[in-house]
Amino acid sequence: MEKVRAVVTGATGMVGEGVLHECLRNEAVEKVLVVGRRACGVEHAKLREIIVTDFFDLAPIENELRGWNACFFCLGVSSLGMSADEYKRLTYDLTMNFAETLAMKNPDMTFCYVSGQGTDSTEKGRLAWARVKGKTENDLMKLFPQRAYGFRIGFLKPEKEYKNTLSFYKFVDWLYPIVRAVTDKYASTLGEVGRAMINAAAKGYEKPVLEVEDIIELSKR
To answer: What is the pLDDT of residues 50-60, one digit of tens each?
Structure first.
């Protein structure tokens, strides 16, 4: 099995930080390139980091994006308080610009995209954010045929040792064991998300869209 060589975005956010740490501790991952607007603050023998000021202008780093076989795209913004046009620009346009650049350099890459529960694959629902996320998933799957996966994460178990846990989770972390005891459909750990992405890149998965229960299942393979 080929070792995973992963590009990770969003490493200064909650999901990206969790995925990064899982990559660094996982023997299936050979090396990691973090691409972000600011330093992630992590040092490791497997890790390289590139700081970019503009994700819409990747020309200065294009040569650094060659030779990778996976991308774990964890970069994202909330739609709260944002116009529909700006949300589309920072969600769909930004993601596709990054993905198209990677596809040009690494046509056989596996692309794992963090969306969320409620994402609308039809692109016709009433929620604008869900339509945008759905379009992003759909077009990534066209760009990386049979090698793109939408990770529809739900409630996440916060990790106390990580720096970028969203403040919301610090107040509701007591809910996690209750939700998880009842069902696997709504809650997972950050480690499970990271391991599922690594396994998707190394082994593939039969579904292009992964709900929470799929993420948990794939993390165990």
So the answer is: 999 999 999 99
